[in-house]
Amino acid sequence: MARIVMKFGGTSMAGTERIRRVANIVRKQQARGHEVAVVVSAMAGETDRLVNFCREANALYDPAEYDVVVASGEQVTSGLLALTLQSLGCQARSWLGWQMPINTIEAHAKARIDSIDADALIASMERGEIAVIPGFQGLSGEGRLTTLGRGGSDTSAVAVAAAIGADRCDIYTDVDGVYTTDPRIVAKARKQTAVTYEEMLELASVGAKVLQTRSVGLAMKEGVRVQVLSSFVGDDAVPADEYPGTMIVSEEEMNALVEKGDMERQHVTGIAHDKNEAKVILTRVPDKPGAVAHIFEPLAAASINVDMIIQNVGRDKGETDVTFTVPQADLARAQALLEDKRDDIGYNRLITDSKVAKISVVGVGMKSHAGVASTMFKALADRAINIQAITTSEIKVSVLIDEDETELAVRVLHTAYGLDAADEAA
Ligand code: ADP
Ligand code: ASP
Ligand code: MG
User: Fold this and answer.
1) Does residue 79 have a known ligand-binding role?
2) Cα 71 off chain centre by
3) Which residues have C-beta within 8 Å of that of residue 303, sequence separation ≥ 6?
């Protein structure tokens, strides 16, 4: 017997028929003798619909009231799943974020989980009840509802798994694992048996939305075993206990898998894309100490994350151009702040462009293998794809390109690094 958290995403919960399918997967897992807690997302598209209502009601919406509205999507699906499980003869009940409670800190709309009181939940599971928990929801120190940021149900699931000491956290979604890149863009993407926490963290943070970045960080910190697998399977599917999906593993486990011949280590594990960044160019900034600080201080004070930065070679007259990226959602605020500080910074023109995409290649193998970046630049150059900015970390290289070239770039790189499924068969 094991204690297992099962999380189902929006597409898995989209409508009563799909919820019935989910209920059957949950019932089967319990019938194998496990204690189960289920974390659910809102129905696909529902959170977007609710966010739009908030915008329509008040463009400058109060994040605390936004949370009240958007958290409702998960309340509906958790109740519906509990009802459906009961109709199948299971004992089940919902546990809303404020009931457990899942205590959060920091801001509304992007709250972080601080602690979870799981005693009552564990007692209920031990009595044979299936606990159904709406993802995404929490409770603030002031006793108000909070939400964990888009995609936050993954983090709810991992946090619950840590709090109840679960043996595993299974994240059920609409693909059957973590692929070498988004399988909806590259048909030849390959499913991975395992990915390390470190690589998954980096992949998620550069746009592979299959897991929310925070959920991976939390799993790594708490040592939660996470599996990504599909809920769109038939009755004859391989049971989750036999790992049909992708396991997120430690570096040591990965080395053991490689030694056993279950995994082949590539220099590049995956390729991700992100269309949610925007580029800002400030021209003719004074080329002197302190100039760059003047640009980024106000952005940092406004909690705007700057990602890629390029300072061009100085021009003749002690001036330089500075290019950087910010999240598209923060572009208007960033622009207003920079215009406000124009005299302090002393730039000539402020140019913005939202039609950009960040393409990243990730792999632990980069630590010991040179040439990954040059392969990227060459492959993109061969297709005349222009690189507008570059950043690197120990296990990642990212480039900024024209948004229209996203799909082409991802495909070209997937082939260039020998990741195409056909290559494996050859
Ligand atoms: P859920 O609603 O279940 O949380 P998401 O839409 O958040 O599902 O995440 C699943 C999606 O992530 C897939 O449909 C796929 O298009 C996308 N995705 C992006 N990169 C990858 C990748 N490397 N492997 C698998 N899926 C990926
Ligand atoms: N429903 C929320 C969202 O769409 C949380 C989640 O599904 O993970 O962002
Ligand atoms: Mg998701």
Assistant:
1) no
2) 18
3) none
CB atoms within 10 A of CB 9: 24
Which of 21, 209, 230 has most ligand 1 atoms within 8 Å of its beta carbon, as the pocket-test mutant? 209
Q: Whole-angstrom Cα distance, residue 286 to residue 355?
A: 27
Could you please report the per-residue DSSP string of 270-281?
EEEEE--EEEEE
Kindly report, residue by residue over 270-284, the tens digit of the pLDDT.
999 999 999 999 999
Question: How many whole angstroms separate alpha carbon 230 and alpha carbon 240?
Answer: 10
Which residues form ligand 2's pocket by a CB distance below 6 Å? Answer: 9-10, 41-42, 47, 73, 135-136, 150-154
Q: Within 10 Å of residue 88's Cβ, how many Cβ atoms?
A: 12
pLDDT > 70: percent of the chain: 99
pLDDT tens track for 242-291: 999 999 999 999 999 999 998 888 889 999 999 999 999 999 999 888 88
The full set of domains in the chain, from first to last, is 1-264 (3.40.1160.10), 269-415 (3.30.2130.10)
- Range 19-44 burial, b when 16+ CB lie within 10 A, else e: bebbbebbbebbeeebbbbbbbbbbb
